[in-house]
Amino acid sequence: MSLAPRAVLVHRTTEYEELLARHGTHGQAAFFLSARGRSVDAVRERHERTRRALAEVAGAVPLTWRQTRVERADLDRFLFGPEDVVVVVGQDGLVANAAKYLTGQPVIGIDADPGRNPGVLVRHRPDRARQLLPYAAGTGAAVDELTMVEGVTDDAQRLLALNEIYVGPPGHQTARYTLGLDGTDAPPESQASSGVLVGTGTGATGWLRSLWEQRSSPLALPAPTDARLAWFVREAWPSPTTGTTRVEGLLDAGRGLRLTVESDRLVAFGDGVESDALELTWGQTIHLTASASRLRLVH
After folding, report:
1. H or E segment at 102?
2. Across 54-68, 77-91, 110-124, 132-146, least confident range
3. Of the four, 5, 32, 155, 295, which is 20 to 30 A from 61 by CA?
4. Out of the domains of life, which is the source (predicted)?
5. Cα(120)–Cα(183) distance, rounded to whole angstroms?
6. Is the model's pLDDT at 2 over the cut of 80?
């Protein structure tokens, strides 16, 4: 007998909850914020909107389904099942946080605070959950299959991200490495920079775009469902031993970027989550490509 679908509600601790955990009471949190020119009322109002959205979505889960909740900090310890329908209630970035732990489950993005989020990934309001949940569990649900980027090291460590992967120094030092491109006979180039960013069309609405605009790049950034990736080297430094001829480009499907470390220590992390970084040491290589895994985001 097949299991009934399970609705997995992904959420994150609100700023108000973090303030209460740090300061103990509402009054102490209010005093802390007022001393810095902020009002606790606005923070609590956003908290209440988020909690109302979460409660509305939970109440929309069909009675024959199972349901559970997982907080963002616990995603790396949560076991998703093939019968799950994942409902992310919060911000666009929370969808990216959840994406790397999924294996093809449909994802519904619910905007818990309309007007404050761009709504690129959290596309729906809470009152749509009642129709979207059974729709997403069906066989004919329309989804966008969003490209993800992965990095695989020469000792088989793997990192997956929806927006981008950053490879660079953990602090403000200079990253030293050689950079090579798949599908070319040109030798790898030794570089010194503040890091390399490889991202998807979804990431092209965030960090990638800021680099693209900053340097007035002529590259046509990929769309979220495009299999291509874009990559940029940040602040490459020319010297007698380091070059700057490879600082940006596009990677077609099946092509990748190879980075071999020439520093004592570099890190690689995805979607801005530094706490989940791979540590790379001298001589180690990481290969960055489009992943075979896709995020299935429900229309």
Report:
1. none
2. 110-124
3. 295
4. Bacteria
5. 33
6. no
0.70 surpassed by pTM: yes
Please, how many CA atoms are within 13 Å of residue 75, restricted to the half-sphere of its CB?
A: 21
CA 187 to chain CA centroid, Å, is 32
Q: Which residue from 131, 16, 102 is spatially nearest to 291, judged by alpha carbons?
A: 102
SS3 157: coil
Q: How far apart are CA 77 and CA 98, in angstroms?
A: 12
Collapsed DSSP state (helix, strand, coil) of residue 98: helix
Q: Which two tokens stand for residue 139?
A: 């066989």
Token readout for 254 is: 């099946």
Of the candidates 291, 163, 298, the residue with the CA atom closest to the CA atom of residue 222:
163
pLDDT tens per residue across span 178-210: 999 998 888 999 999 999 999 999 999 889 999
Tell me if 96 sits within 8 A of 206, measured CB to CB: no
pLDDT of residue 242: 96
Would you say 147 and 250 are in contact if contact means Cβ atoms under 8 Å apart? no
Measured CA to CA, the distance from residue 254 to residue 12 in angstroms comes to 35
- Residue 186 vs residues 25, 178, 254: alpha-carbon distances, Å: 62, 12, 18
Work out the burial of residue 241: count CB atoms within 10 Å of its CB; fewer than 13 is exposed, 13-18 middle, 19 or more buried. exposed
Q: Are 290 and 147 in contact (CB under 8 A)?
A: yes
Can you give the pLDDT at residue 184? 87
